[in-house]
Amino acid sequence: MSERKVLNKYYPPDFDPAKIPKLKLPKDRQYVVRLMAPFNMRCKTCGEYIYKGKKFNARKETVQNEVYLGLPIFRFYIKCTRCLAEITFKTDPENTDYTMEHGATRNFQAEKLLEEEEKRMQKEREEEELNNPMKVLENRTKDSKLEMEVLENLQELKELNQRQANVDFEAMLKQYKEYEEEQKRKEQEEDEQEMKAMLEQAQNRRLLVDSDSDEEPAKSRTKPAAKIKPTDILQEPQSKKLKTESWERSVGKLNTKSQLAGLVTVKKQKPNPALANGTENQGTTANTGNCPCGDGPVGFAGNGEGST
Length: 308
What we know:
Elements: E1 31-36, E2 41-43, E3 49-50, E4 55-68, E5 71-79, E6 86-92, E7 97-102, E8 104-106, H1 109-131, H2 133-164, H3 169-222, H4 232-235, H5 246-251, H6 273-290, H7 296-302
Antiparallel strand pairs: 1-4, 2-3, 2-8, 4-5, 5-6, 6-7
Helix pairs in contact: 1-2
Region (Disordered): 180-250, 262-293
GO molecular function: metal ion binding
Subcellular location: Nucleus
């Protein structure tokens, strides 16, 4: 049984790789790649800012007839995120950077141009000094003169500052000490005022407490004794109303009967006539049985109860 994942393939003995047909693709063929904006740029059509690092689906192609030290140069096509205008830029292997071609302007381009100009001038100077020793001497004398002028200008500025601002350090220290002493004195005065205010408050509280304690025994002395003898309680009139508490006004008393006495009336029960006759008969039989006389009415008369 053969392997599922075959690593080695079979080549017949008459295999000739030159006979394999090759794809004929154009040299300027474009590929779709995913890239990020290499620098900040601004669209010329709508003025939209495209910041460095923004991702695009770009078309990539090889620039024809442009090579730097055998390295090919590539061109990229992107579209503006707002107006969909086409923007192109290509690689710059000489400066390890990118150059803007069409559709937008690169931000901070002036600073880059200034740096490039300085590098170019420095390079030209080095080339001149390499072949001309007299030029080296002239450049050195110019540099020394320029350095002396800079030092003189710096010294003049220092002297001018000293003339305009004559600083007396001793006076400054003295003024600073006076300021510190004044601050300490103010702090001490504020602390003393706070202490005085606190003492006055405490004294006022004590006076108020003392006055309250003096008034309470005076009031207790002025009250007369309401009950001198224990038997005076029996002689008090019943119509005297007791002092009602605040909770009794809202809820009412629970044990008092005087307030509810007029609301409830007791119904008197009338005697049943049948029961009354029964009790009378029992009474007569009892009387006749006890009396030696013969008739019952005589017994009623003898008992003093006349017939009605």
